[in-house]
## 1
Amino acid sequence: MTGPLVVAIVLSHERPDRTVACLRSLRSSLYPNLEVVVLDTGQAPGSADDIGRAFPGTEIVALEGNRGYAGGNNTGLALALRRRADWALLVNDDVTVAADCLSRLVECGESERRIGMVGPTVHHRDEPRVIQSAGGYLEPDWSASFLAADEPDRGQLREPRDVAWLSGCALLVRLELYEQIGPLDERFFCYWEDVDWCLRAHRYGWRVVHEPAARAWHEGGRTGSAPHPAVAYYTTRNHLLALGKHGAPLRVRLVAARRLGTTLLVWSVRPSLRSRRAARTAMWQGVADFALGRFGERPSTGRGRSE
């Protein structure tokens, strides 16, 4: 094999058909030195058998329950480190990648020693030519937003560039970085753990780079669509957690508090936004749980999403 060893970690959650599609794209990868490991959360009974029938010989590791995106991928990262891999590719089960995606990510990462994370241009799966994410940035209240979100891909992104953070749905991570900055913070459970990880990488002097020539496709709604209550809960609580963890200045906290308060008020009183009231209730729960120091999986649901 040529090239550094990459271990792809696929966190399989509730739909084995999605995992099969993800594995099919990884099996078509042009990168020669790739190992694939599926981590099965056990949320879909029989999923490991379904995946095994579709791809005989695939390594499937059973997790002890659902530990969210952070906990599941931490298991995979530790496994990749034991195998002396150079890089780990974190891939959500609802992601597919282009055949040359990994080759381009590795080429970018290997071009400079201080590049610790590399991410592709992620497109909407149901609109394959529309960008979902080209890396991310922090707004004045330190909320996390995608660059180029919902823009038609006309080739406007040409050169690799440093970004504040990368989506964890498809993320190549140098394992030397993982050893230095530590694992994903499992308090987040899902949502914001990728942002937190990237911010920690920056603090240690690592570069976080978007490689536009690498392409992936991810399920998910467009910006502006009504959030699922679970998403509203985790993004609210975990944003507040990140503000405290990373020492946000008072001015940032004030902007964040004003924006959160405005959203809760508008979603409560505007008739046209009644469809968002379940999300509003979930946001209130997120604020309360942050204040009470309740982290990890959302207590009232017994379930969580992988990303």
## 2
Amino acid sequence: MEYHIEKLASPGAIVGEGPVWNPEENKLYWTDIQGGKLFKYDPETGSNDVIHDGVEVGGYRFNEGGGLILGTWEGVMLWHSDDDFKWIQSGNFEGKDTAIKINDATSGPDGSFYCGTDASDWQSDILFRVNTDTSIDIIDEGITLCNGMGFSPDETKFYNTDTLAKTIYQWDYNSTTKALSNKKVLVKINDESEGITDGMTVDSEGFIWSAIWWGSKVMRFDPDGKLEREIYFPATQTSCPMFGGKDLNELYVSSAGWGSGSSPEEATGIEPKGYDFNAYRGGDLFRVKLDIQGKPEYRTKF
């Protein structure tokens, strides 16, 4: 199957990530984590405005009471503008040395905020939930790098990504109690020449879309974890997919320019076998129109 890939914006994002569609505005928000910026892309005009410039934003969601909940490298904040915000959680987790430094986030059906850290040098990161009363529940520990999360359309499953393990986990989710149980491996990429699982989203049919960093693509898996299709993009560091557009049938994909110009001698050591260090990495926002619909993202309730 051939796809028409559009390059929409090229701000040179160091770690372009986390696109989220705002249906009221018909605009797409996305972040440059390492660049400390939030963008707002307007499909009507093609403008890509910087709306935040400061603390690094790993993940965020729109808040039902107004503003955005930002999961940042310094904690969780309720943000209306760079001049109007308040911290909800910051510092370290209670009783732990691990900082609340967030790499990715999503909202739960009840309006809580699910986050994963990048605070332990890829050793033992934490998946946690900030409840609407601002208390924290630690869901899982020992993750090498927390990444994409999402819920099944019937709200019975929760998914989260461990990037360096190249794994997407599935949990049973109780929408009444918010309890998560029966963690199991749904997707495991064992090919040494394959990239690593990064950001993700879930469509209206319950299929999981995972961006493959260093793989130039997004992979779609069925609810049993079987690969259904792959869509390739002209950047190796594809970082996160998200559905948008008025009919939620447009897949927006962020990419990252981090590491551009590196050589094998400057490698991180986790690149896939045979990775082309001279290939274009990214920093752009892409779009592809599909015959598949996404589902609206939940909003937080802080």
## 3
Amino acid sequence: MIGDYLLLQKVVLSLAIGALIGIERERRGKETLVAGFRTFMLVCLFGLLSGLFSDILGTNLFILMSFFAVTLLIISSYIFTFIKKKLIGQTTEIAFFVTFLIGLLIYYQSFPYLLPITLGIILAVILFSKEQMHKFAKNVTKKELWHTFIFGIIVFIILPILPNKTIDPMGIINPFIIWLSLVIVISISFIGYILMKNFGVNIGLSLTGLLGGIASSTAVTLDMCEKVRKNKNILYSASFSIALASITMFLKTIMISYLINYHVAGMIFIPFFMLSAFGYFMSYFTWKKSIKEKARIEISSPLAIKPAVEFTSLFIILLLVSHLANQYFGEISIYPISIISGLIDVNAITITLSYMAFSSITIETAVKGIMLACLTNTLSKWLLVNSLGTKKMTLETGKVFILLMIMCGILLLFQP
């Protein structure tokens, strides 16, 4: 009985994933032999049944035969498309084959079926994002391609070979942790950058500011200050973008801390969510003034070598200084370090304190240190606007930043 229920569960899942993929292909039009909504449902189910019958027969021969049949269908589809439509794209054929494999995988997986569901969603997203991906590919510069190549080396070549242990006499410097921290920060920033570059023109200034904050709130601040100096008619749009990007820093901090130490993330989630919600509400009044203006955010790729080197250097320095200060002066010394480092970068001190919270300091100290860093980082953005922007811009952003810093200070007082 349980076995029948599990099998029925897998059948429904295979049909659902096939339908998800097939909907997109149906929307594109029946350009090939295997483009239909129902066809993709059936091929995913066929993959599932291939595994089932192979188990019943006690041989993998049925899977091989099914594999061969799907391959023949794909080849026939491609030939048909090329002869009749003069099209040489292979996306549908490859998607068809992957859908079959997902169905086969569903049979051999157990609840919650994370791998086949994840693969199905990834495949659907890739298919649905055709226009955006083509647009992004056309707009990618040689410099960005070079940065992506460097990113691949950082993640897939250097990270796996680094020793996951401390290498200094004090037991502080762990090459793998340091490099992993760099990967986490630039990955989050790059995702925000890609989304902003891909969709920024169409989604409006609000969401572009949010994505810009994920990529780099400092970069958004610098870009907007430069634009206002050249064109004072976009004052409110630029101020709104800076405020939005800086507020998003709080949400980004939650993400980064969660990837390092979810206990720390759990404690900062409520105060930082409150700060973000309050900040977004206050920036609404600036947005009302910016409706008639037209401004656009442009920032460079976060995968440049210089920012990566600067972050890694700062992280190592903070790690050493924080550990030594904590060892000789106690946890109270973490707070001035957080205040100073927050003026430069929030990400490095967030990772440092989240990592130290495993053994060297308490979670409460880490949370207070991160909050202090975010407070001073907000102050540094306002000072940046004051020095690089205009007086009116300083006043407009100050309406949000001052209240945000006051609220952050109040929340700090209530931290245990």
